[in-house]
Each structure stands twice: as structure tokens, then as C-alpha cells.
Automatic annotation (TrEMBL):
Keywords: FAD, Flavoprotein, Oxidoreductase, Signal. Belongs to the oxygen-dependent FAD-linked oxidoreductase family. Residues 1-16 form the signal peptide. Its cofactor is FAD. GO terms for molecular function: FAD binding; oxidoreductase activity. InterPro entries: BBE (IPR012951), FAD-bd_PCMH (IPR016166), FAD-bd_PCMH-like_sf (IPR036318), FAD-bd_PCMH_sub2 (IPR016169), FAD-linked_Oxidoreductase (IPR050416), Oxid_FAD_bind_N (IPR006094). This is FAD-linked oxidoreductase YvdP. It holds the Pfam family BBE. It comes from Echria macrotheca. The keyword Disulfide bond does not apply. Gene3D superfamilies: 3.30.465.10, 3.40.462.20. It comes from the Eukaryota. Residues 55-228 form the FAD-binding PCMH-type domain.
Length: 488
């Protein structure tokens, strides 16, 4: 009997909920000298607040490391106690994955680790794992008039962004954020710290560039940079496609153009219930932009609303949505939304009419503030498609289009009946596309997907290798979240 009782008690301990381990975790963090947010303090509230207020999760503890040794200490405590742990950088995950994507995780709030140091002689920047993009961009500019390509929102963290892709208004010209990475310092699940690059731990380095959140915590990135151009031109052109036929005709012209457009041009089609824009950034002056887009303007009947020459900081501010560039802690900006994404090649007649039919018949009935952003991701002159598609774990280099579907409410809660809008938009488009000819982007996640579907959609043909690497570096899934890589 005694033996059975002991066995039951042991079982109880093993299956204890993370919150039952809170006191032990707190003791462990404190003896390891890891700074933490005390529950209920204003820092706790800020650090636990999701960007997407629809997905609010309660951490079991929040560590606030300021050194790599603190990160190691925190991971050692999590591993010892069997608590799941996740890094949080900018906190901008649409699925709140920086908060674990569910209750009861140890959060490593990295945003106090945001140093950026540019070596002006090599052009290589050392960027701490908790910096936000606007801060990184302003530092690189101030320290040497340099930069690299990445997304537009200054509050987005370089961590989540560059570890999973990082697409922005420079990417057709200059590639993904992860294409500028040359090395990273990573704390692994067993709390050892290693450097990875093409020559050190190359498998880990491969996984870091596309699925980094599942294999470790990056405390420092090394990025190469380029000297930023003196003159760029950002632009907005409106198209008015009043009927389904005109929209199909316009989209056909758009995709033919996207396949061939010059490397210097970056463009997206931004569809909302109120307007449709072609917009982006041209590496060159206004006359160059006009010449580059003339063929598309003629076929889509687009009319320019803005063609603005400016320097590097001007375009960053323009695309940064009015926020000051240099974002750090505290950052307190939120929305309430549901999202999903898609990658496809050019659509054939059936697929185009499925897309436009859903858009005109159903999407236009949705009175919430939704949009579809169609990035001209690939194409024959895109820097994204230049590297070998298997050279990093980012699985979808070759696709022509990257779509972000976004559906939000200004205030209040997102209705449970609201998910169908995006889900049906996506499934109407994919209905006549073969299974292996589309994918999704983990940085524009669909938080409603189950883990197996999510892994397949995000990592496609790279999933098997990623799961093998995951098994080698994190066999007990310390860095678990609901859409991460599972050990094979
Ligand atoms: C307003 C807005 C604009 C956006 N614009 C773009 C855009 O233009 N282009 C684009 O490609 N994406 C864009 N995104 C998406 C963005 O790239 C992703 O949400 C990204 O993952 C956010 O990174 P984060 O560090 O801010 O998020 P977090 O929620 O902090 O982290 C996201 C994931 O990365 C992990 N992670 C973060 N830091 C580290 C680290 N140092 N080490 C290990 N794992 C880490 C987290 O554990 C989590 O799984 C945008 C998002 C928002 C909200
Ligand atoms: C870095 O180099 C750029 C030119 O490449 C120069 O303009 C700038 O002053 C240099 N900055 C420092 C801090 O040396
Ligand atoms: C990783 O590389 C950086 C930069 O070269 C170096 O400063 C650091 O000591 C290295 N860390 C480890 C753990 O090797
Ligand atoms: C552009 O305008 C021309 C001339 O009016 C018209 O024939 C064509 O269908 C229009 N195209 C689109 C995509 O609106
Ligand atoms: C488009 O492609 C799908 C899938 O391959 C196919 O079923 C469909 O018939 C194609 N439509 C046209 C018009 O070619
Ligand atoms: C297309 O959208 C409609 C309207 O929401 C929906 O009823 C239908 O099931 C969708 N089709 C597919 C294949 O998802
Ligand atoms: C930690 O894990 C890495 C990756 O699996 C391994 O190479 C290393 O030997 C481990 N270190 C210790 C101390 O176990």
C-alpha cells in the first residue's frame, strides 16, 4: 500500500500543473540571480500584455534577463522543473507565441537586452536578442548610415521577425531579414550557450533561420548590413476594380508584372473593404519609379496618390505607421484580431475566379476592419528567390505571393462567429490548388490551426529535418508552444 501511495504521489508531482510549480520556479530563479517581474506590478502587466488582445495568456513567471547568463539560469530552472519556456522579444506574434501561446509558461522578456553595435569597418552589427526593429534601424543608420531589409513596424522584435523570415518593403530588392544574418549566440534547452554560423553548429544555424523559436533563445544576432541608398521613392497608387471581371483582369496583370518586375521595385497589393492600393518602395528616384511601373499602371488603370522621394529614415517613418522609430521598453500598443496567411504562385483562371468570387460576394459583406495584403514576394528578379531554397529552414522562398489576411475589431471582443471570414477566404483560394503548392508563414500565423497542420503549412518540405534537429537539441520540448516544431 505504501509503495502504491508513493507511486501515486510521484505521479501527482510529475503531472503537477505549471502553476503548482510557481513557488519552486520563483525560488530557482531567485537563487540563480535571474531578475523577474513580481506578479501584479506595472512591469508584469506590461510584459504580460499581448499585442493581440484576443489571445491573452497568464505566464507562471516572467524572467527579465539583462545578460546571456540570466537567460541560461532561467532555462536551467524551466528544464529542471518541467516548465515550458519561451523568449519574448517584441511580443508582436499574432498568436501570442512570445507568451507561450497558452497559460503557464515561463516567459523570458528580452526587451531590456537591446544593444546594437555596428562595426563600421566590417559592416557587421551585433544586435541583442530583445531589440525592436525601429531601434535596430535607427542605431544602424546613426552609427554608419547602414541597414538591412526587414519588416515595417518599428515595434516588431528582431527576435521573432528574423528567426522566422522577415519580409518587408525592401525584400524584393534585398531579401529577407534572415538572409542578412551571419551568426547567432543561442542558449539551448540544456542551458549551454553556443555560437552558430555556416561553420559552427551549421544544423542549428539552419534551423535558427526559419524556425528559431523552437530550438533555443538567441541572445545576440550578427547581421551584415548595406550602406543605405541616398534616394528612394515610396508610392501609393489606387486601383478601382468595380466588377469581378475587372478584378480578374487587374489581378492577371498584377501577377504577370510581379513575375518580371525589376529588382529595384518593391510592391504589394493592399485590399480593404474601402479601397485597393498598389504600394511600396522603389530603390531610385521618382522618374525611375514611373518608368518601372508604367506597364502595370497601363494595364490596371492605377492612379498615383503619392510618389515621394526621400532618404532611408523617411521611408522607414512612412511605412512605420506614424510610430516613433526608436521603440524600446515600455511599449504599449495593441489590437484585437484574427489572422492567417498563404503563399501561392500565380493563380490560374479557376483560382483567380475563386479568389475574386469570394472577395466580391462574401468578403465585402464583412463590416469589420479587414484587409488582405498581397506581397510580391518572389518572381524572377526577387532577392528572396536567389538563395538555394534549402539553404535555410525558411521553406517558402520560391512562391510568387505572400498573403496576410487580417480581420480586426476597433474595440470590444472579436466575435466567435468571426473566424469564418478569413478561413473561407483562404479555403476558397486553395480549393483548386494542389496540396503541396501552397503554404503559410509562421510570422503571419493562423492560431486556430492544430499543431500538425501548422507545422506542415509553415515548414513544408523542411519539417522532417527540423524535427530531427529539434529532437537533438530539445528532446523534451522545453521551448514548446502550440504551433512550434515537435521533436520527431
Ligand atoms: C504591427 C505588426 C507589423 C508587422 N509587420 C511585419 C512585416 O512587415 N513583415 C513581416 O515579415 N512580419 C511582420 N509582422 C509579423 C512579425 O514579424 C512577427 O509577429 C514576429 O514573430 C514578431 O516578433 P516579436 O519578437 O515582436 O514577437 P514575439 O511574440 O516576442 O516572438 C515571436 C516568436 O519568436 C520567438 N522569439 C522572439 N525572440 C526570440 C529570441 N531572441 N530567441 C528565440 N526565440 C525568440 C518567441 O518565442 C515567439 O515564438 C508584423 C507584426 C505586427 C504586429
Ligand atoms: C561609419 O562609416 C560611415 C561611412 O561608411 C561614416 O559616414 C560614419 O561617420 C562612420 N561612423 C563612425 C562612428 O565611425
Ligand atoms: C560568440 O561569438 C561572439 C562574437 O564573435 C563572441 O564574442 C562570443 O564570446 C562567442 N560566444 C561563445 C559562447 O562562443
Ligand atoms: C482599364 O481601362 C480600360 C479602358 O477604359 C478598360 O478597357 C480596362 O478593362 C480597364 N482595366 C481594368 C483592370 O480596370
Ligand atoms: C487550375 O489548376 C487546378 C489545379 O491544378 C486545376 O484543377 C484547374 O483545372 C486549373 N484551371 C485552369 C483554368 O487551368
Ligand atoms: C467559400 O466561401 C463560402 C462563403 O463563406 C463558403 O460557404 C464555402 O464553404 C467556401 N468554400 C470553400 C471550398 O471553402
Ligand atoms: C547541450 O546540448 C547540445 C546540443 O544537443 C550538446 O551538443 C551539448 O553537448 C549539450 N551540453 C551538455 C553539457 O549536455
Amino acid at each position: 500500500m505504501l509503495q502504491l501511495g508513493a507511486f501515486v504521489a510521484l505521479l501527482g508531482l510529475a503531472s503537477a500543473s505549471p502553476f503548482e510549480k510557481a513557488a519552486a520556479l520563483s525560488d530557482c530563479l531567485s537563487s540563480a540571480g535571474v531578475p523577474t517581474d513580481a506578479t501584479g506590478t506595472s512591469d508584469w502587466k506590461l510584459d504580460a500584455a499581448p499585442y493581440n488582445l484576443r489571445l491573452n495568456y497568464t505566464p507562471v513567471a516572467i524572467a527579465v534577463p539583462t545578460t546571456a547568463a540570466h537567460v541560461q539560469g532561467a532555462i536551467a530552472c524551466a528544464a529542471k522543473l518541467g516548465v515550458k519556456a519561451n523568449a519574448k522579444c517584441g511580443g508582436h506574434s499574432y498568436g501570442s507565441f512570445g507568451l507561450g501561446g497558452e497559460d503557464g509558461h515561463l516567459i523570458l522578456e528580452l526587451d531590456r537586452m537591446n544593444n546594437v553595435v555596428l562595426d563600421n569597418s566590417t559592416g557587421i552589427a551585433r544586435v541583442e536578442g530583445g531589440a525592436r526593429l525601429g531601434h535596430v534601424a535607427s542605431e544602424l543608420y546613426n552609427q554608419g548610415k547602414r541597414g538591412f531589409s526587414h519588416g515595417t513596424c518599428p515595434g516588431v522584435g528582431v527576435g521573432g521577425h528574423a528567426l522566422h523570415g522577415g519580409y518587408g518593403v525592401s525584400s524584393h530588392t534585398k531579401g529577407l531579414a534572415l538572409d542578412w544574418m551571419v551568426g547567432a549566440t543561442v542558449v539551448l534547452a540544456n542551458s549551454t550557450i553556443v555560437n552558430c554560423s555556416e561553420t559552427e553548429h551549421p544544423d542549428l544555424y539552419w534551423a535558427v533561420r526559419g524556425a528559431g523559436s523552437s530550438v533555443g533563445v538567441v541572445t545576440e544576432f550578427r547581421f551584415k548590413t548595406f550602406v543605405v541608398p541616398e534616394v528612394l521613392t515610396f508610392y501609393v497608387a489606387v486601383v478601382r476594380w468595380a466588377t469581378e471581371d475587372k478584378a480578374i483582369e487587374g489581378l492577371k496583370a498584377v501577377q504577370e508584372f510581379a513575375e518580371e518586375m525589376p529588382a529595384e521595385l518593391n510592391m504589394r497589393l493592399f485590399i480593404t473593404p474601402r479601397f485597393i492600393n498598389l504600394e511600396g518602395l522603389y530603390y531610385g528616384d521618382k522618374a525611375g519609379l514611373q518608368a518601372a511601373v508604367a506597364p502595370l499602371v497601363a494595364k490596371t488603370n492605377a492612379t498615383f496618390q503619392l510618389q515621394q522621394e526621400g532618404g532611408w529614415l523617411d521611408q522607414l517613418k512612412h511605412f512605420g505607421g506614424g510610430l516613433p522609430l526608436d521603440q524600446g521598453h515600455p511599449y504599449d500598443f495593441h489590437e484585437t484580431f484574427y489572422s492567417s496567411s498563404l503563399y501561392t504562385n500565380a493563380l490560374n483562371q479557376t483560382q483567380l475566379s475563386d479568389f475574386v468570387n469570394y472577395w466580391f460576394k462574401y468578403a465585402k459583406q464583412n463590416k469589420r476592419d479587414w484587409y488582405v495584403q498581397l506581397d510580391f514576394h518572389g518572381g524572377k528578379n526577387s532577392a528572396v528567390t536567389k538563395p538555394d531554397p534549402d539553404s535555410t529552414s525558411y521553406a517558402h522562398r520560391d512562391y510568387l505571393f505572400m498573403y496576410l489576411f487580417y480581420d480586426r475589431v476597433d474595440k470590444g471582443i472579436f466575435p466567435a462567429s468571426g473566424f469564418g471570414h478569413i478561413q473561407n477566404f483562404v479555403s476558397n483560394i486553395t480549393e483548386s490548388i494542389p496540396e503541396n503548392d501552397w503554404g503559410r508563414y509562421i510570422n503571419y500565423p493562423d492560431p486556430n490551426l492544430d499543431q500538425n497542420t501548422a507545422q506542415t503549412n509553415y515548414w513544408g518540405s523542411h519539417l522532417d529535418k527540423l524535427q530531427a534537429i529539434k529532437k537533438a537539441v530539445d528532446p523534451t520540448d522545453v521551448f514548446h508552444y502550440p504551433q512550434g516544431i515537435l521533436p520527431e
